Amino acid sequence: MELLMGKSPGDCIKYRAEISMSGEQQRAKEISSIDLIIQLYKKDVDRTLLRENLKLTPAQRVEKFGEFLRQQAALRGAFPKSAEES
Amino acid sequence: MSSLLEAFLPLFDKHKVDCILIGGWAATAHGSLRSTVDIDFVYSRSAENIDRLVSALQSSHPYLRGAPPGLPFQFDEPTLCLGLNFTLTTHLGDIDLLGEVLGGGNYEQLLPYSEQFQLAGYPCQCVTLDKLIELKRAAGRPKDFEAIAELEALREERERR
Known about the structure:
- The complex is a heterodimer.
- Chain A has 5 helices and no strands.
- By secondary structure, chain A is mainly α.
- In chain A, helix 1 packs across helix 3.
- The longest helix of chain A has 21 residues.
- Chain A is flat, with a radius of gyration of 21 Å.
- The model of chain A has no long low-confidence stretch (mean pLDDT 76).
- Chain B is an alpha+beta fold.
- Helix content of chain B is 42%, strand content 24%.
- In chain B, strand 4 and strand 5 form a beta hairpin.
- In chain B, helix 1 packs across helix 3 and helix 6 runs antiparallel to helix 7.
- At the A-B interface, helix 3, helix 4 and helix 5 of A face helix 2, strand 8 and helix 7 of B.
């Protein structure tokens, strides 16, 4: 797995094919290419934000997200439509 | 702009609709920070519940999302009985109503893998985090890989607490 850190999802699939070809078929079965891709994404997840969010109740998380959406909509509405959009 | 949960949950509560929140809003309730533009529910296919669902949503004028305007689509009991999964646009926002979901089955099969939250002031049956990860994995869509990574990280962080 360490070999794949920093590699692209395409590299993972290639890696999977290589380990399969080299005879490590059992290992290739256990570690699917999808799992490898998910593992790669997982290392970039900002866990500090998740930890902060986990301190909230489900209702508070939903409320916070609703507020984010409201601010996003207000921001969008603050800009005049471009000629292509209107 | 009110959130989709604030828009739909009062209607579902008023009409006693049996449904389970899945997808991005369920992920948000569990702690995900990813954004979503629609809301997804698995609904019970019982005749009584379909009646209640129609009553709850009829005033929001549901229409097939992405379909050309003017189709003779009626959001009523016969239509829901003949179909299964509906991706709809309404005056309240976009909603997906799913009779069955890959990896989770129907409402009755998914119910044991749900928990009740109080969201936006209303009770809401929400799929568990473990099952949500299973559903996303079963769907196998590349666009979900990043979301699965975040949900699995969430699960790990939750287990550490």
